[in-house]
Amino acid sequence: MRQVGAPGDSTCNSDGEGFVKLENAKVPDTVTGRLNVGVDLDACRAECLKNCSCTAYANANVTNGIGCVTLYGDLIDTRVFTDGRQDLFVRVDAIELGEYMRKSEEQSGEKKKKEKKGVLVIALTSVGAAAAVVLGVSVVCWLLKWRRKENKNLYEKDSSVSIFVVNDIFAATGNFSLANKIGQGGFGSVYKGLLADGQKVAVKRLSQTSSQGIEEFKNEVKLVSKLQHKNLARLFGCCIHGEEKMLVYEYLPNKSLDFFIFDKTKGSLLNWKTRFDIVIGIARGLLYLHRDSRLKIIHRDLKPSNILLDATMNPKISDFGMARLFGEDQTEANTNRVMGTYGYMSPEYAIKGLYSTKSDVFSFGILVLEIVSGMRSNHCYKENPSLSLIGHVWDLWRAGRALEIADSSTMGESYSADQMMRCIQVGLLCVQESPTDRPTMSNVVSMLGNATTLPSPKEPAFILVRQYDDADSSADDRLAVISINHVSITTMEAR
């Protein structure tokens, strides 16, 4: 966002900012302004826009419409009257400008409808109108000041996030055409887009009925804008227009991990070497979030659909709407609003609302077992319907047959039994019931990259399964939570 400086500042990254016209306004005292009689209104606008400390502009000569006054600082004594004054153009950010344009279009449409129907507009008395307008502009100026403060909190000084104009987003995505739709998530849809400069992007359009509100949206913008790692999806910018909330990410051509590993045909495109590299990449990205970035972040929703793949199948963690920032010495937090995805939530989070880095470690362990096996965490085994993927892998591990879980697509020239067994063991270590028993992501990266002896995993925490009726296998599945240690989950809010 723009920074407020002295009137002498000459350059500014306006980031889609513009001006809202207040008609019949009293221009504030010129002690806070600058007069230039040699330019017209268009040049005046350009001069104000490039100076971050300029808050408004107007004509210097109302009668002839020439000359320029640029104003700086708060517009303290601004007033709007019924007539006899001049137009004042007040600077607003891209979000406010978009909302102003939308409301102007709506009002224009309503006006045309009323004209067609011959509706008579009865004016207020001049005194009442003047009082109402003065009060109105005071409220408007206060709201603009408040909104600018809120938006400065959203886009902080060191943020590299750009603000996109809504029309550019619609143009880039073909008005969000189905042909450009590349994904669907719990909070909305994702579309492929092409910006005017030729840059390919992925636009995450949040559903207006989504449970992700403005706070989650701000959260994602704030966090992702500060993160830079090759295994994290890069955020280019965002756009808010009325009820629309959109995030603009880098475009990754190979969609998400679930697109491959849960499909037998597409899964064959991921041999063991590629899958192992994906596991390593996710681990490094998570380690960056937990330890190596300037912020300590808990993702809270790690799953295959939130792992995007670039052109070389390099994994990138995405979707930070539910992520939480931790203090440097903070180890745990809790919430009364448990949100996540069935099959990936750690037991302490699902049952008690407690989350930490070890919650992400649990989700990572599930992810590893899914990558190795090509099966979903809530996969149901007809030979033993009470088992999910974790329970099945645990049984095979205890029987010394863990490699039987491997996806047949991985059994190629790059296949390594030792490497695969190490991944399975690390996965089981990550899903142990007690958070203190689970390794840190630093330990995980070390265990995956070295040939050191690994500790034996303890019994997993719980398993999420789908129950079905043998008499009617086509009936709708219903979810049930079964704990190996007889712990039940009563209430969870799914994404």
Please sum up the structure shown.
The protein is an alpha+beta fold and 495 residues long. It is built from 13 helices and 22 strands. The protein starts with 17 loop residues before the first strand and ends with a strand.
- How many helices? The count is 13
C-alpha termini separation: 32 Å
Unreliable stretches covering 5 or more consecutive residues: 1-10, 119-137, 146-158, 463-495
Text of the CATH class of the largest domain: Mainly Alpha
The CATH topology of the largest domain comes to: Transferase(Phosphotransferase), domain 1
How many discrete domains? 3
Provide the gyration radius in Å. 29 Å
GO cellular component, one term: plasma membrane
Keywords: ATP-binding, Disulfide bond, Glycoprotein, Kinase, Membrane, Nucleotide-binding, Serine/threonine-protein kinase, Signal, Transferase, Transmembrane, Transmembrane helix
InterPro entries: Kinase-like_dom_sf (IPR011009), Pan_app (IPR003609), Prot_kinase_dom (IPR000719), Protein_kinase_ATP_BS (IPR017441), S-locus_recpt_kinase_C (IPR021820), Ser-Thr/Tyr_kinase_cat_dom (IPR001245), Ser/Thr_kinase_AS (IPR008271)
Catalytic activity: L-threonyl-[protein] + ATP = O-phospho-L-threonyl-[protein] + ADP + H(+); L-seryl-[protein] + ATP = O-phospho-L-seryl-[protein] + ADP + H(+)
Report on the structure:
The protein is of the alpha+beta class and 495 residues long. The protein folds into three domains: 137 residues, Hepatocyte Growth Factor, CATH 3.50.4; 89 residues, 2-Layer Sandwich (Phosphorylase Kinase, domain 1), CATH 3.30.200; 237 residues, Transferase(Phosphotransferase) domain 1 (Transferase(Phosphotransferase), domain 1), CATH 1.10.510.10. 34% of the residues lie in helices and 21% in strands. The strands form seven sheets. Strands 2-4-3-6-1-5 form a six-stranded antiparallel sheet, with helices on both faces. The protein has a six-stranded mixed sheet with strand order 7-11-12-10-9-8, sandwiched between helices. A two-stranded antiparallel sheet has the order 13-16. β14 and β15 form a beta hairpin. The protein is elongated and about 90 Å long. The two termini are 32 Å apart. 39% of the residues are buried. The N terminus and C terminus are likely disordered.
